[in-house]
Every structure is written in structure tokens, then in C-alpha cells.
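Why does residue order matter? Because the sequence determines the fold. Keep that principle in mind as you read this record.
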Amino acid sequence: MAKKAKKAKKAKSAVKKTAKKTRKVSKKK
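Structure:
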């Protein structure tokens, strides 16, 4: 369970990072 939670947290943070990047790109367009 602990390992799964860690993986989920990493995935969530990664999604947030990519979301921020895409948002910046869309703003430029």
C-alpha cells in the first residue's frame, strides 16, 4: 500500500507539472 501511494503521489505531481507546461504553451498561442 505504501509503495502504491508513493507511485500515485509521483504520478499526480508529474501530471501537475505537465499541466503547468501546457498551460504556458497555450497562453503563448
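DSSP finds one helix and no strands in the chain.
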